[in-house]
Amino acid sequence: MILGRKLDSPFRKYFSVFVFFFWASIGCVQYSYQQSNLRANHFETVYSAKDQLVMKAVDVAPTSTNRFQKVIGEVKAVISNGDTIATTGKLLAYFEDENGLVKRNQLLLFTPILNKVNNRNNPGEFDAERYWNYRGVHYQTFVPDFRYVVLQQESASLSDIFISCRIFLSKIIDRYMDGQEAAVAKGLILGDRSSIESETTRMFGNTGAMHILAVSGMHVAILVLILNYVLQLFPQYITKRNAAIISLVFVWFYALMTGFSASVARAAWMFTFISGSVILNRNYLPVNGLLFSALIILIITPFSLYDIGFQLSYAAMIGIYAFYPFIKTQLFFKNKWIRGVWEGVALGIAAQLMTTPIALYYFHQFPNYFVLTNIALGAYSIVILSLGLSLFVVGGWRVLGKAVGFILFWVLFSMLWIIQFIDALPHSVSEGFVIAGWMIILLYGLIVILYWSLTQQKYKYLIMTLMVSIVVTGFIVFNRFQNINKNQFIIFNNNGVVFALKKDKQLVIFYDTINVKQKHLQQLVSSYQKIYPTFIKDTIPLSNNKTINLQYDGVQLKINAIQGGYEIDLNKQSYFLATSSRYETTNRKIISSSSIDDKTIFHQLSKGAYLTEIY
Question: What pTM was computed for the model?
Answer without folding.
Answer: 0.84
